[in-house]
Here is the input.
Amino acid sequence: MEDYEHAAMADPFARAVSFFTQLTCDLSGPSTLALPHQEVEEMAAMRGRELARLLLQAHLDLRASREEAELSALGPCSRAALSDGRTRLERGHNRELATVVGTVRVTRCALRSPGRPNCYPADAVLGLPNERHSLGVRRLAALEAVRGSYDTAMEAITRSCGKVVGKRQVEHLVRAAAVDVAAFYAARTPMPASAATLLVLSVDGKGIVMRPGHLREATRKAAERAQRTFRTRLAIGEKGNRKRMATLAAVYDADPAVRRPHDVIAPPGGRSTLRVPRPGPKAQAKWLTGSVEHDPEYIIAAAFDQAQARDPQHRRSWVVLVDGARHQLDLIQAEAKRRGVNIHIVLDLVHVIEKLWAASRCFHAPADADAEDWIAVKAARILRGSAQQAADEIRAEADHRKLTGDQRTAADKACQYLDNNADFVHYDQALAAGWPIASGVIEGAARHLVADRLDITGSRWSVPGAEALLILRAIISNNDFPAYWNFHVQAEHQRLHSGSDQAEYCLTA
Here is the structure.
């Protein structure tokens, strides 16, 4: 044993070489040659990971011995210059590092001075984080946690790396992984596009069920005032006041695609096979963002920042798709005025169609197929730019049938919706200009960014936890995660080691 330990000290890779030799012997032995492939596969995978861990450990040990020799050779003045006045050298300071191949020990030297914290030059050279987990584990935690629950993320990491992280630690690592997203996009220049390319913005909101202490103040107070029927669950009608609204935004480019009303809505009786509908504009270079922490004006400003970066001279047509929410509209118009940009606001046609479907129930039974033709006629009229005429026809039909009270509520709401948004339903102009008239991109983003992950049954979120997952899912959807991670690693090194003078110090291992 003494001979082996001496050899390991003389050659840090001796243990890894010995392990590899033993592994090859085991894989070529008669007992292993009789095993089914799945058992051999498992053996190779598990012991291969241990071999990788031993190799990493050997590399770190080699660097430690080189560092000790280099620092021992330096005089007090050189050490002081290296560590801001610290001259005392102390060897053998250890810390654990949980990596993607398992946990290793990092041994390094400390430069010390009375009354001051230690300086570890190797920490800066290696780019070590403050916490126990490597940046590789943090990256893996972020990628796994955005796909499923923290429990499943921890299980996936354990299968891949061994037992290196717990559930609470995964949550912490995810939050740490998201800290540089805003700075990344502030420093990033989007690809330019021609003046003929449309610049489309869309904003939407989506509620996330929060822990009581993380609701907005008004929602929290409303929840406290609510009477509870049961102690252990919510009754019907008691599920309100549990959510905090996240604001989502999308910005994308699109080539104009001129259409006519019947390209969008099928005529009564359905389409013929003689004519293929013209396709609408296709989203390109899509960029998504969102926040549950910040108010809507913050996200709207971020969307305008992205649009401004794409078109700083305001040469392109800016089309903003909205759902009719008045507060959202006011914020959008105020932001456009502040930036001096002319925007074309278009009410999402899908919301108009939903209002027409609700109104049709005032005149048709739920299973009446004629309701679809009724909606087609009204929608086609609206698409031709006659929204006011369509509203007048709906009111006149309700009067003709002598509907009163609740019988005509949905019809009146549809008409009021068209009246309130009269400035934003000029679909004839939008179709002629080739603009998009439906907000499928932002609706899909609400489902993908929020519903698919943050609406997991039983989940209750804190603001920091939900915010980190939301923005990480957005950056992955933007196909920017690899570039972001490189940016984040550099930013993390700058935060932790910017004060370290490495200009004249380099481990040679």
In short: Residues 2-128+490-497 form one domain. The two ends are 27 Å apart (CA to CA).
